[in-house]
Every structure is written in structure tokens, then in C-alpha cells.
Amino acid sequence: MKTILEIENLRKYYGKQGSQTKALDGITLQVMEGEFLGIMGSSGSGKSTLLNCIATVIQPDSGRIRMKGREIQSLKGKKLAQYRGREIGYLFQNFELIDNLTGRENITLPMSLHNISDQESRERIEKLASYFEITEVLEKFPAQMSGGQKQRIAAARALIMNPGIILADEPTGALDSRNGKILMKKLAGLNQDENATILMVTHDTNAASYCKRILFIQDGEIFHELRRDVPEETQQDFYKRILKVMAQLGGGSANVL
Description:
38% of the residues are buried. This protein has eight helices and ten strands. The strands form two sheets. Strands 6-7-8-3-9-10 form a six-stranded mixed β-sheet. Strands 2-1-4-5 form a four-stranded antiparallel β-sheet, with helices on one face. It is 37% helix and 25% strand. Strand 7, helix 6 and strand 8 (198-201) form a beta-alpha-beta unit. The protein is an alpha/beta fold. The protein has helices at 47-54, 77-87, 103-113, 118-132, 147-159, 177-194, 205-208, 235-250; strands at 3-14, 21-32, 36-40, 62-67, 70-71, 88-91, 165-169, 198-201, 213-218, 221-227.
């Protein structure tokens, strides 16, 4: 597999000297093309800061982030806009849909900003709407949708530009267990059938069990890694292994077996 994202010795501190919070304290990792990677950790461990640095919402204090070999901190102007619009698709916890736009308009908004033809827009949206089972709400406004429908509209919007990587920040956080399961099955299906690369931050062990690999962060550092690399391992067995690590993480221990 080819490396799509490289993060090297990434640091982000908040506060003044002497009373600093180390949100990221030397994070190094790689995401391979077609991988479904989960990032887990307790609240305040640095998970969302990491995702926001990759999305260029936050600038790290030091370290490097490379997407397909290109260092993203050096991107400016049109190149930065192209990176944000075409290279990454961001799936937010609280949907971030525009209330006065229909589902269809929310999904197609990124394409209108990047001059995609009407014909291609229609083809892409029909395919995604069918996959996410949201065809019946395309002409509705967010206030007329359930939480699960809103998040699937948001997922289609994140995918509409065929990004190199999907960044999902607690995508099941605002959903009940049923809709969370539906969403995760759809994301896992995209990863399995379309080779979509997904980097997901979550504290939800059920959601994490759909990943192929999980990195656990504590105090801004990666302290453990789990791989679902045994063919016969079931999702339930992987879920149990995740729970064991999270139990130790909750206890503040980095000595994970």
C-alpha cells in the first residue's frame, strides 16, 4: 500500500510558558491509501487538535504534515483552497449543514465552489444518495430531517469531491446507537468496496470496531496501537480488545498489553 498521509513529530501547545497544555507532543504516524484508521483517547487527549491540524484549521507549532508527499503547511491561496476542497473531506460531529439549503444543495455546495459541471454533479449525487439511502430527503431542509439523515447528507457532502482522505471527527457523537451503526456500516462499506481512506477520531468503541487499525493518544502522545490484522478476528472480538485498552486508558495507565 502507498502512504497517503505522513505526520512527523507534530507539536501543538496551548497557553503561556510555564502553564502550557501539550495538546500534541511529538505525534508521528502514517496513513496508508485505503486504510480505515481510528484515533482514540480520553477528552482533551489531542484527538481533535490532530484532525484540525491535518485540515489546516489549526497551525501546529512544529513538525510536518505531508499529503501525498506535499507539505501542507507551505500551501497558500489557491493551492490551499484546492487542498481543503479536493484533497480532504471533513465529516463533523454536529453535521454543520446550512439550514436554508436543501439536502441536495448542501451536498453539491463544494462542487459549485470548484466548477464541476452540472452533468457530473448530478451523476455524483445520484450515486451517493443511493448509497447512503437519502434520496427521499434531498429536497428537504435540515430541520425536516432526522439526525441520522443529516449525518448521511453530511457524509455525502464530504465525499462528493472524491477526496484523497476522509477526516471524520466523532461522526456518531450526535447520533443514537441505531443511526450510528447505520453510518458506520456505510463508511466501512466505502472503505471495503471503494478503497476509501478514512481517518476517524472517536471515543465510541462501537464505531472504532469498524476500523482496521487504531492509535490511542494520551496527553498528546501515541502510546498504543491495535491492528485488526487477523483474518478470522470478528468485529466483536476486536471490540473487546478496544474495551481493554480503553479501560486502562481511563485509569491513566499507558502500560497496555
